[in-house]
Amino acid sequence: MSGERLAKLLAYLAEDAAARGITTSSEAVCDACIRLIGVSGAQLTLMNGTGRGESRYSTNEIGTQLENLRFTLGEGPCEDAVRSGVPVLVAQLDSWENDQRWPLYVPAAIAAGARAVFVFPLRSGAIRIGALVLHRTSPGPLSPEQVQDAHVVADLIMSLLLDELTRLHLDSEVPPADGMPLSRAEVHQATGMLSVQLGVSMDEALVRLRAHAFAHDRSVIDVARDIVSRRLRLSPEGPV
Amino acid sequence: MSMENLAETFVELADTLVADFDPVEFMHLLADNCVTTLEVDAAGILLVDHHGELQVVGASSDRARLLELFELQHRQGPCMECYLTSAPVTIASFTESPQRWPEFASMARAAGFGALHALPMRLREQTIGALNLFTVGEGSLPEPTLRVAQAMADVATIGLLQAQVISHRDLLAGQLQHALQSRVLIEQAKGVLAERMRSDMSQAFETLRRYSRSHNKHLSAVAEGVIAGTIDMTELVATKDTDPRAR
User: Fold this and answer.
1) In this complex, is the C-beta atom of A179 within 8 Å of any C-beta atom belonging to chain B?
2) Is A19 an interface residue toward B (CB < 8 Å)?
3) ipTM for this model
């Protein structure tokens, strides 16, 4: 089952990082995708303040070109996935249907060497921080297992990126990513409450929630429960 | 269980399976209909996410104790068992010992329930979650009622898998993601509302639902509006329910 899937992925990533003498990062996870999921390349698009998005990392030149196409043309699987918030899986770019759907993107992406593109949004409800864009140089679908793995990898990248933001609020080090899914109702509810208490966006509220938990050496879910039951309030100026 | 009620339920469910489909509203409608049609006391629909954890996507009530019972089954319990085996699981009594899931049983008793039925949500080879039915009284539900309950679980599954969320090209992964993400959005919006209205989560949820019904908007769209601040709070709180089902 998927608990094992996550454990397997984390073990693979730890091994991979150790072998290359690096620490696990969103970039390292992208590199690992190639063998782990069986694709030709992986690229990470992050949404920034401008709302247009920008490339954070690409494992190869094709990935960079696909991101440039998304940015300049404003269409394509990544645009659709980010806008809709659900995965867009295109096993064969070169088809009449896809030509109709993305008339500018498809011929340009094929010219760049891509034949299949699979996009997984980095998302938790209203929090949308970008997308993981995988591509292949030959057409063909991902297997159901590969799709599941890609979902888990996207969640992992999301928590690594949140860790980076969380560090900005902390003097101490963030605990290493445990890859825990942020899937408890209380965490989402507390994030919503915090966004009002602190007058910040949902993304920032989640980061502050995590920062508070790490700074007090507590689990995120425990802190979330205290916020929901109103035993704990965070103030805009106060320490984390 | 009346035949008239049953027919109405299926018509109502079928009505929601049109182009403009809101999976979360559909799941809540189904849970509500389970309670009225099957004469059970609470119902919930849990779908498995890509981490293999069960997530509540629809419940007949937002009572904290009921939701806790669903949450407790994230990774194990009768609902997970039902999902993993694709077969119904019945706990006819939470008081008899031994209990296979003692923690779950004692929480269920504390919440005032006597028995539970979990029915698989499956379509051909694929199982995507389970329908949970709680009764205050102990004992199994009659066989005909269980058959109807399974039919409702099947309708829910077909509804969810057939939903044309973005386009016909997007896969099952997309449909499930859509339902699960809509749920996250709603929880976040409940937090925003609860903090603004100084209410609890279940009042916040009822407010969202009332507004969604009276304005004929998707629950997830209302949730997005609350989070983005594009829905007027005063109007939201003042919205009266226009739907007799809610009473």
Assistant:
1) no
2) no
3) 0.85
Instruction: Name the residue type at position B126.
Output: Q
Q: What is the CATH number of the domain that holds B237?
A: 1.10.10.10
Angstrom distance (rounded) from CA B215 to CA B95: 45
| Closest residue to A87, CB basis, from B71, B177, B194 | B177
Select from A1, A82, A86, A117 the residue whose CB has the most chain B CBs within 10 Å, as the one to mutate to test that interface. A86
Low-confidence stretches of chain B (pLDDT < 50) are 164-170, 244-247
3-state secondary structure of B123: strand
From its phi and psi, is residue A223 left (phi > 0), alpha (psi between -120 and 50) or beta?
alpha
In angstroms, the CA A156 to CA A122 distance is: 9
pLDDT at residue A49, rounded to an integer: 62
Give me the mean pLDDT over the A6-11 stretch: 76
For B102-130, the pLDDT digits (tens) are 989 999 999 999 999 999 998 777 788 99
Interchain proximity A195–B191, CB inside 8 Å: yes
Q: A175, A160, A165, A156: which is closest to A200 by C-alpha?
A: A165
Q: What is the CATH number of the domain that holds B154?
A: 3.30.450.40
Peptide linkage before B98 cis (omega within 30 of 0): yes
Contact B148, B35 (CB under 8 A): no
Cα–Cα distance measured from residue B173 to residue B159, given in angstroms and rounded to the nearest whole number? 15
Distance from CA of A185 to the nearest CA of B (A): 6
CB B128 within 8 A of CB B161: yes
What is residue B199's predicted lDDT score, i.e. its pLDDT?
A: 92
pLDDT (tens digit, 9 = 90+) per residue, A199-225? 999 999 999 998 898 888 888 889 999
Contact A185 B71 (CB under 8 A): yes
Single-letter amino acid, residue A170: L
Q: Which CATH code of 3.40.720.10, 3.30.450.40, 3.40.640.10, 1.20.1050.40 fits the domain covering A3-161?
A: 3.30.450.40
The answer to whether B178 and B21 are in contact (CB under 8 A) is: no
Interface contact A155-B51, CB threshold 8 A: yes
The class (CATH top level) of A182-239 is: mainly alpha
Give the integer Cα–Cα distance in Å for A86 and A76.
14
Structural domain span for residue B83: 3-161
Position B160 scores a pLDDT of 76
Helices and strands in chain A: count of H runs, count of E runs: 10, 5
**A90: nearest Cα among A15, A47, A147:** A147
Q: Show Cβ contacts of residue B11 under 8 Å, excluding neighbours closer than 6 positions.
A: none
